[in-house]
């Protein structure tokens, strides 16, 4: 396979983007690894064919500057665009600060659209692929994750619509329904500080706990995903720990059974005093 040019957002060390950089680079492709702070991916700077760039998906100025750099270095074409940058947010819906919620959507949804619009001419010129790192969480009503899950549901739908709209232009779009992957996303999330007046005060100590899942190692996850991209996959692709559950259970389990599973993993919601 001829070497491809790949741009990945959100490549800080310890995340999915970082693992994807390593896997694409290992296979001989040229990678533009981006992050808001390039210092957070400094361990990549000595790798052959890896170019570190600053890119903040919530800033049009930053995105446009990145497009110009890639256009020059790649000869006006980009074979693969990976939208990975995202933030986790945990908070009871009744206690969500609206401005904080907007910031979650600004990164997880509007950031994806902003990057796709900006890089589309380069991807179309290459008849390339776009990989949007969505989440199975967008299909699951996990308690206290309403804003994160809603932003991912919106992103998943955007990606699927883009798949249809870009098909006549020769561009493949993958919606990665990511399951549980061993990354530092939870550690990098803002601390959960519910108001003293919250009705969920009785389970305050439970809400901020990191939920325990069967996480897939990031390296093996990245290998599967890169296989999907280079193999020409399109549409929804389920990868990561518990991805089988995310794909099938919502469609086969009755509502009461799904509710039971969500409450069992509901960060203490079952321990709430009955009113």
TrEMBL record:
Pfam assignment, any one: adh_short
Gene3D superfamilies: NAD(P)-binding Rossmann-like Domain
Keywords associated with the record: Oxidoreductase
GO CC annotation, single: endoplasmic reticulum
GO molecular function: acylglycerone-phosphate reductase (NADP+) activity; triacylglycerol lipase activity
Biological process per Gene Ontology, one example term: phosphatidic acid biosynthetic process
Domain of life of the native organism: Eukaryota
Keyword Transmembrane helix: no
Keyword flag Oxidoreductase: yes
Ketoreductase domain boundaries: 4-184
InterPro entries per the UniProt record, alphabetical: KR_dom (IPR057326), NAD(P)-bd_dom_sf (IPR036291), SDR_fam (IPR002347)
Coiled-coil features, chain-numbered ranges: none
Similarity-based family: Belongs to the short-chain dehydrogenases/reductases (SDR) family.
Record protein name field: NADPH-dependent 1-acyldihydroxyacetone phosphate reductase
């Amino acid at each position: 396979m001829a070497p491809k040019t790949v741009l990945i957002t959100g490549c800080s060390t310890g995340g999915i983007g970082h693992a994807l950089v390593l896997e694409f680079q290992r296979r001989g492709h040229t990678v533009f690894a981006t992050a808001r702070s390039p210092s957070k991916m400094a361990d990549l700077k000595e790798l052959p064919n890896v170019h570190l760039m600053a890119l903040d998906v919530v800033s049009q100025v930053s995105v446009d500057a990145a497009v110009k750099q890639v256009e020059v270095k790649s000869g006006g074409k980009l074979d693969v665009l990976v939208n990975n940058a995202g933030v986790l947010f945990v908070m009871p819906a009744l206690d969500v600060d609206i401005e904080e919620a907007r910031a979650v959507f600004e990164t997880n949804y509007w950031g994806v659209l902003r990057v796709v619009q900006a890089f589309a001419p380069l991807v179309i010129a290459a008849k390339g692929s776009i990989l949007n790192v969505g989440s199975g969480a967008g299909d699951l009503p996990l308690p206290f994750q309403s804003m994160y899950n809603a932003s991912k549901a919106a992103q998943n739908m955007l990606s699927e619509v883009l798949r249809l709209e870009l098909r006549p232009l020769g561009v493949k779009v993958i919606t990665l329904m990511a399951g549980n992957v061993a990354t530092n996303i939870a550690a990098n999330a803002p601390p959960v500080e519910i108001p003293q007046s919250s009705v969920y005060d009785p389970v305050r100590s439970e809400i901020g706990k990191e939920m325990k899942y069967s996480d897939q190692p990031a390296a093996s996850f990245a290998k599967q995903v890169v296989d999907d991209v280079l193999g020409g996959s399109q549409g929804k692709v389920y990868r990561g720990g518990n991805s089988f559950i995310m794909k099938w259970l919502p469609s086969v389990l009755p509502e009461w059974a799904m509710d039971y599973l969500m409450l069992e993993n509901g960060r203490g919601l079952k321990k709430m005093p009955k009113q």
